[in-house]
Write a structure and sequence with these properties.
The protein has about 400 residues and is mainly α. The chain has 2 domains: about 250 residues, no CATH class; about 60 residues, 2-Layer Sandwich (Nucleotidyltransferase, domain 5), CATH 3.30.420. Helix content is about 50%, strand content about 10%. The protein contains 17 helices and 11 strands. A 3-stranded antiparallel beta sheet has the order 1-3-2. A 3-stranded antiparallel beta sheet has the order 4-6-5. Strands 7-9-8 form a 3-stranded antiparallel beta sheet. The termini are far apart. It holds the Pfam family PORR. This is PORR domain-containing protein.
Length: about 400
């Protein structure tokens, strides 16, 4: 058996790999198992994400105002299970009604627009984006540095802005501010625009795994090899032959997602190592350390993913988890969660926290309004009862 030392020659590594991995990677299967804790992490975000969809729908309208009945017609597309009026009543901090005409000579109808509190939140959101602009630039650079030829379709980057915390004006305002980093070709929105990395930044060219190994080396005083954390939760089981394959695969040298891998064969174990590294880095860069699988699939060409890339997540179920919550496959990074809670919080998640505070404030207002109404009804009923009793007493006195 060949020893996997740091001084092993490339020919030795290739020969060792061929001896170890005689079974085609595509034939390796792992049965999917549900992880309730990680599923709950997605479920916890369901309500505020629903509210955010409705907010985006209104803000994307001309003048950021829309007739109530038009918004009601879009309820199915918004995946809103209740009527719009009911939704607005349950979330009073988001919108307000105003009367206007759809056409110049038509009768006034109810429109929906952002409330003052929502507008204050939007101003706060812009401030948070400005404060974290260096972080956003570094994320964008990293996405380009991992890509083939350091180029990514600009429209695809716009589509994943919510996964990575990019602002809405990413290509319009932020990219032009950094000509030393980015070059935009074509017109975004037409499907033929591309964002290219202008200059390589060594500070961004290290993955989360490499930085972790460096930190462990510094603390322990010995050199630590970059390696994936591979751990299954209690109750999960993998067959012996698959465990042996994973053990041998883990011993392969780590391949940085920022390295040039044009020389690697697509079906090789080394390419699998690199692909897992790219997914690990992409999920690490994302806000919630999870990304829907169809979203990742949009980048097959840029990151050299195979057509069957999604099987990587179940094959390496000690690193990733595939959740089926919400009727969509979502790839999650296991090590990023403790139970259902994120461990490392992205600074841009402050925006989400502020939005949830806005919703909570509206919910408290709704509860208080309900309490006041019930109190008024109770007092009115007491008054009517007292009045009725007094009236009955007067009648009895009159009879006497």
């Amino acid at each position: 058996m060949f020893s996997l030392s740091r001084k092993a020659t490339p020919k030795t590594l290739i020969l060792w790999s061929r001896l170890q991995f005689t079974v085609p990677i595509s034939s390796l299967k792992v049965v999917w198992r549900k992880d309730p804790r990680l599923d709950q992490a997605i479920q916890n975000d369901k309500q505020w994400r629903l509210c955010a969809r409705v907010v985006r729908e209104v803000l994307n309208e001309p003048g950021q105002v829309i007739p109530l009945r038009y918004l009601e017609k879009r309820r199915e597309r918004l995946r809103l299970p209740i009527k719009i009026e009911t939704f607005l009543a349950r979330n009073p901090g988001l919108f307000e009604y105003c009367m206007d005409r759809i056409k110049p000579k038509s009768d006034p109808v109810r429109f929906v627009r952002a409330s003052d509190r929502l507008n204050q939140f939007l101003e706060e959101e812009q401030r948070i984006y400005s404060e974290n602009e260096p972080l956003i630039v570094s994320k964008l650079c990293k996405l380009l540095m991992m890509a083939k030829n350091r180029v990514v379709c600009a429209d695809k980057l716009v589509e994943v802005k919510r996964e990575f915390g990019f602002p809405n004006d990413l290509l319009v305002n932020l990219v032009p501010k950094y000509p030393e980093c980015f070059r935009l070709y074509g017109t975004p929105g037409e499907g033929k625009s591309y964002l290219e990395l202008v200059s390589w930044n060594d500070n961004f060219g290290k993955s989360v795994i490499e930085k972790r190994a460096e930190e462990e080396s510094r603390l322990m005083g010995i050199r630590v090899r970059p390696a994936f954390n591979w751990k299954l939760p209690p109750g999960f089981y993998i067959k012996k032959e698959m465990r042996e394959w994973i053990r041998d695969w883990m011993e392969l040298p780590y391949i940085s997602p920022y390295d040039d891998v044009s020389h690697l064969e697509q079906a090789s174990p080394e390419m699998e190592k690199r692909t897992v590294g790219v997914f690990h880095e992409l999920l690490s860069l994302s806000l919630y350390k999870r990304i829907p699988v169809p979203v990742l699939g949009k980048f097959c060409e840029e990151y050299r993913f195979s057509n069957a890339f999604s099987s990587v997540f179940t094959r390496h179920s000690g690193i990733f988890y595939i959740s089926l919550k919400g009727g969509i496959q979502t790839a999650m990074l296991r090590e990023a969660y403790k139970g259902e809670e994120l461990i490392d919080i992205d600074p841009l998640l402050v925006i989400k926290d502020k939005f949830v505070e806005l919703l909570d404030e509206g919910h408290r207002q709704r509860v208080e309004n309900i309490r006041i109404k019930r109190e008024l009804v109770r007092k009115e009923m007491e008054f009517m009862a007292a009045t009725s009793k007094e009236y009955d007493s007067d009648e009895q006195n009159a009879e006497l």
